Amino acid sequence: MVCSEAGEVYSRKLASFVEKRLKSERTASIWTSTLQRTILTAYPIIGFPKIQWRALDEINAGVCDGMTYDEVKKNKPEEYESRRKDKLRYRYPRGESYLDVIQRLEPVIIELERQRAPVVVIAHQAVLRSLYAYFADKPLEEVPKIEIPLHTIIEIKMGVTGVEEKRYKLMDAVNPTAEV
């Protein structure tokens, strides 16, 4: 599997950003899911250890895996409607819910909190929403609605007065067909 053209451009921009930003932080690390698109996104980043976490894999869409939202709406209207009504608790048939993802991220969160050096997490929408919600202290019900813009670095620093956040848009998002 190869990154899209936009994905390749983003991965190079991300590598440049990380290498410049963290050049003095040689103990920093790059964490990805075990899915090819995050591994390929991290590939151009040089000089930092890369760790793959299965817990960072995208939400398992079960029988809907690989379908776009429009395809789910057309081919599985009852599943589409159930998820639309309660995205947090809805579990795909033979798949996961957001609550399942949040639970599976617990060891990752514990390990992130133990880190003293920066960690770059390259993951997927549901996972990034869940991690962001935890560190930004967002209510559980908001998790599925949190906006995680494509091609944007969200830097979170834990401070004594709470979380400091900065966003760096590395490129404009293309208009990909969203998959579930």
Task: Please provide a written account of the structure.
The chain has 180 residues and is of the alpha/beta class. The protein has a single domain (5-58, 97-169), classed as Rossmann fold. It has helices spanning 5-21, 36-42, 69-75, 77-85, 98-104, 106-114, 125-135; strands at residues 29-32, 50-52, 119-122, 152-159, 162-169. The strands form two sheets. A three-stranded parallel sheet has the order 2-1-3, covered by helices on one side. A two-stranded antiparallel ribbon has the order 4-5. A hairpin with a 2-residue loop joins strand 4 (152-159) and strand 5. Helix 3 packs across helix 4. The longest helix has 17 residues, at 5-21. The chain is globular, with a radius of gyration of 17 Å. It starts with a helix and ends in an 11-residue tail after the last strand.
Task: Give me some keywords for this one.
two-stranded antiparallel sheet; Rossmann fold; 7 helices; 5 strands; 15% strand; 37% helix; alpha/beta; disordered C terminus; three-stranded parallel β-sheet; single chain; 180 residues
Distance between the termini: 19 Å
| Average of per-residue pLDDT values | 92
What is the number of strand segments?
5
What is the name of the CATH topology?
Rossmann fold
Total individual domains: 1
Strand order of the largest sheet: 2-1-3
- How many helices does DSSP assign? 7
Layout of strands and helices, then pairs:
Blueprint: H1 5-21, E1 29-32, H2 36-42, E2 50-52, H3 69-75, H4 77-85, H5 98-104, H6 106-114, E3 119-122, H7 125-135, E4 152-159, E5 162-169
Parallel strand pairs: 1-2, 1-3
Antiparallel strand pairs: 4-5
